[in-house]
Amino acid sequence: MKKENIIQADAGIRPYDFFAKVMGGKWKPYLIRGIAHRGYIRFNESMRILGVSAKVLKQQLRELEEDGIIERKVYSVVPTRVDYVLTETGKTLIPIYDLIFDWSLKRMEALNLPVAPFSYTFHGGDTQEDLKYLEKVYSDEDLAE
Q1: 93 phi and psi angles, rounded to 5 deg
Q2: Tens digit of each residue's pLDDT, the chain (145 residues)
Q3: I need a labelling partner for 70 at 20 to 30 A (CA). Which of 44, 84, 96, 134 fits?
Q4: Cα separation, 57 vs 31, whole angstroms
């Protein structure tokens, strides 16, 4: 992490600023919870499921790797296989994300806000609607090839 971006005039780093710098990014919670749920994620699969561009996904994975949250495992097989897995430090984030997810669901329910389809998939609680969405994503991808 580039610490010079978050060091304040008093030569200290505020913890909330540090957390925002490390965990800031639209897709990072999905990537972290996806790895926790499955044990690993793969680049193309994540790009397809999340609907994120390769450039943004690569950037967020690289940042998570540089910050010691995930590690990249390359297998010497043909074709080359790359898995992203949580480090021990990354695993410590799971209870935090669980709290944020649960709080958000309760607050959304209190405000009568609809929960988007596919919300539970990366969190570890696939619903039938989520599974149908994933089937559609993969069948659309198969048709495109």
Answers
A1: -80, -20
A2: 555 555 555 678 888 888 998 998 999 998 998 899 889 999 998 898 888 999 999 999 999 999 999 999 999 998 889 999 999 999 999 999 889 988 998 999 999 998 877 677 766 665 566 566 556 655 554 444 4
A3: 134
A4: 9
Tell me if 88 sits within 8 A of 98, measured CB to CB.
no
Q: Write the DSSP assignment of the chain as a string of letters.
A: --GGGT--TTS---HHHHHHHHH-STTHHHHHHHHHHHS-B-HHHHHHHHT--HHHHHHHHHHHHHTTSEEEEEE-SSS-EEEEEE-HHHHTTHHHHHHHHHHHHHHHHHTTPPPPTTTTGGGT---HHHHHHHHHHHHHHHHH-
**Which of 102, 71, 72, 77 has the alpha carbon at shortest distance from 89?**
71
Residue 39 neighbours by CB under 8 Å, 6+ apart: 85
Tokens 């669901």 belong to 105
